[in-house]
Design brief:
The chain has 662 residues and is mainly alpha-helical. It is built from 27 helices and no strands. The chain starts with 7 loop residues before the first helix and ends in a 13-residue tail after the last helix. InterPro entries: Alkaline_phosphatase_core_sf, GPI_EtnP_transferase_1, GPI_EtnP_transferase_1_C. It comes from Galbula dea.
Length: 662
């Protein structure tokens, strides 16, 4: 397990209590527990009494005869006490009063900061109910009905703890709705901006000045009303942020009322079945993305649906071979999320096999480029390709050599370490020396990143970037078929397409419904790049085996940096493919990123309501990590897009020798 996980082997702690005032062990014939500790410890015939961690404080207080800690929320475990029934009843009564006092303080604090007509008390423990409980318990003790008194006090403790939780989370619904309103407003505004700027669905009609002024004053009044309402309740400053943020966002939305009216008229003219079908497909797509954060196997379902995409849209009719390869690669990639998370058991022969497979693919690509009309322009390009192939061969050898050396307790060879670091540095520069023709540049990026990824691999994950890249190459081809299928633009001849001149395209086409699918594919592949071979827990577990080719001395920051690089490489491959799709389908990257923003915001709203404040530290941390990951998804994708543009469009030119002729 990982640090702070909720597994029984990590959360169960043996508790041994002995000495004055402690009960003797009780013999039993049978008892049932899910774990096998009793059997291991040979204590099956003695009664086991499990307690919560918080219950130990009142137990210790009772044994040494001091008052219960003021803020303790533990229940006194009476089975541990060797004392009279009267003492036990009095002790649990004191415990109940102590927890009830905390409940009263919490209720008073909340009552003080809430308007009287809005305050909703915890009904099971009203003032009259509290008095009734205490009177009854005291009466039972006086009448020597100790068992009834103990039972009643335990009920009171449970209700007081429920009440404490109720007042602790009293504003949760109100704040949650405020944040949800902000999310909904922002997402609506982005959708309107996409429709207004990048489609021809609406006529650009501006709202008149009089209506605009009325709207402004109306929303200003609402904002002031909310601020006044929070002020008289002496709310913290964070409440003002949560509650006031939706006001300007919704003002911006309502300002675009003519666009909303135009859009509504367009939607009403559509076939109802088609509209509902489209909404269902969008909802299902986003739910698959959300579920993939919890269950990696959900990505397999998504990839199998992607495999059937050419058949569903009839694209396979015009490009049978491309569609078939796409389907096969989707099915191959769908295997990775079903495999266990990359663990500590290295499988070096698989990494070596991947290196050899990459070399074989490189040779095949080299021969196909030489045969095509788009040959290498000069010997330098050919030398570069051989240099990258040599880098792959070296990486494969170093992985094998290093793990053999470590296995024989000979340490990391210095030469291996030097070559590993040189490979890492060169992998960032070599792609920039290659020609900017689409497939040649993308293949150069793959070879460079693959040499580094091999050095950081320990098992089946080495194959992942290779299969992912294959699918990305097919995706670029499939999108060309889709563009032609829908008649959006002329089919680009990909072999001769040059990234260097792609930035000169000033005439971007308008968005089509199919572009939503394109953006969704991008988000899905980005999520697959992250969860394909691991999850958040596996990244947190920080397995040092991956970095043994670079260093064996523990250095958390260096190891962390290398681990992040390993996680980022699949993202770069997906981003470069998406960059190629943007320029070859004549799409503005801004419009596609706005669609991605909408998808990530809807996902973030899901994760906002899935954030936990109970369970193990790992459960709580993972739920927060999911929310933060999705919230930062758009920023991260923009960085990836910037890197992809740099890797695809820029070229480093070395000064060449000028030949002098006599």
């Amino acid at each position: 397990g990982s640090h702070g996980a909720g597994h029984l082997s990590e959360t169960l702690t043996p508790l041994v209590v002995w000495g004055a005032g402690v009960n003797y062990p009780q013999k039993v014939t049978s008892q049932f527990f899910e774990d096998s500790f009793l059997k291991e410890w040979k204590l099956e015939n003695l009664k086991r009494l499990d307690v919560n961690q918080a219950d130990i404080a009142p137990l210790m207080a009772s044994l040494i005869g001091v008052p219960f800690p003021l803020n303790s929320v533990g229940t006194l475990p009476l089975e541990y006490l060797n004392n009279s029934a009267h003492f036990k009843a009095e002790s649990i009564f004191t415990n109940a009063v102590q927890i009830l006092e905390q409940f009263k303080v919490k209720m008073y604090q909340k009552k003080e900061t809430t308007l009287s007509f809005l305050f909703t008390p915890f009904k099971p423990l009203s003032d009259s109910e509290q008095i009734n409980f205490l009177k009854k318990a005291r009466l039972y003790i006086q009448q020597q009905k100790y068992d009834e008194a103990v039972s009643l006090c335990k009920t009171l403790i449970n209700l007081a703890l429920e009440g404490l939780s109720y007042y602790h989370t009293y504003d949760r619904l109100f704040l949650g709705l405020s944040i949800a309103m902000g999310f909904a407003g922002w997402t609506t505004y982005v959708i309107l901006m996409i429709i207004k700027t990048y489609t021809d669905l609406t006529k650009t009609v501006r709202i008149n000045n009089k209506e605009s002024t009325v709207l402004f004053y109306g929303f200003t009044f609402v904002g002031m009303l909310i601020a006044f309402f929070l002020l008289i309740q002496t709310c913290p400053w964070t409440y003002y942020v949560y509650c006031l943020l939706p006001v300007p966002v919704w003002y911006a939305v309502v300002k675009e009322l003519p666009i909303i009216q135009d859009l509504a008229a367009n939607l009403l003219s559509l076939h109802v079945g088609q509209s509902i079908g489209f909404l269902l497909v969008c909802t299902l797509g986003i739910e698959i993305l959300v579920f993939s954060f919890f269950y990696r196997s959900t990505l397999t379902v998504g990839l199998l649906v992607f495999a059937g995409w050419p058949v569903i849209t009839q694209l396979w009719i015009q490009a049978k071979t491309t569609a078939l390869v796409w389907t096969l690669l989707c099915m191959l990639l769908a295997v990775f999320p079903l495999m266990p998370v990359v663990g500590r058991e290295p499988n070096i022969p698989l990494v070596i096999a991947t290196g050899l497979l990459t070399l074989f693919i490189s040779c095949f690509a080299l021969t196909s480029v030489c045969k095509s009309e788009n040959k290498f322009r000069n010997n330098e390009d050919l030398k570069l390709h051989f240099c990258q192939m040599l880098s792959i061969a070296l990486s494969t050898y170093i992985v094998s050599s290093t793990h053999y050396s470590l296995k024989n307790k000979q340490g990391l060879p210095v030469l291996n370490q030097m070559i590993s670091w040189m490979t890492l540095v060169s992998s960032l520069v070599l792609p920039l020396l290659s020609p900017t023709f689409l497939f040649q540049r993308l293949f150069s990026i793959l070879l460079s990143l693959m040499s580094t990824y091999l050095l950081l691999s320990t098992g089946y994950e080495a194959l992942f970037p290779l299969v992912l890249s294959g699918l990305m190459f097919m995706w670029i081809n499939m999108e060309q078929e889709a563009v032609q299928h829908y008649g959006l633009s002329l089919k680009t001849k990909l072999a001769g397409f040059n990234f260097a001149y792609a930035t000169d395209i000033t005439q971007f086409r308008q968005l089509h419904l199919d572009d939503i699918r394109r953006s969704f594919f991008f988000v899905f592949f980005i999520v697959t790049a992250f969860f394909g071979t691991g999850n958040i827990a596996s990244v947190n577990s920080f397995d040092p085996t991956s970095v043994y080719c670079f260093l064996t001395v523990f250095s958390p920051y260096m190891m962390g940096g290398l681990l992040v690089l390993k996680v980022v490489i699949p993202f770069v491959l997906v981003s470069c493919a998406f960059e190629a799709i943007q320029v070859t389908t004549q799409l503005s990257s801004k419009s596609l990123f706005l669609i991605v923003l909408v998808i990530s915001d809807i996902m973030a709203l899901h994760f906002f309501f899935l954030v936990k404040d109970y369970g193990s530290w790992l459960d709580i941390g993972t739920s927060i990590s999911h929310y933060v990951l999705v919230m930062s998804l758009t920023i991260f994708m923009m960085l990836m897009n910037g890197m992809a543009q740099l890797l695809t469009t820029q070229r480093l030119e070395f000064p060449r020798r000028i030949k002098h002729h006599s």
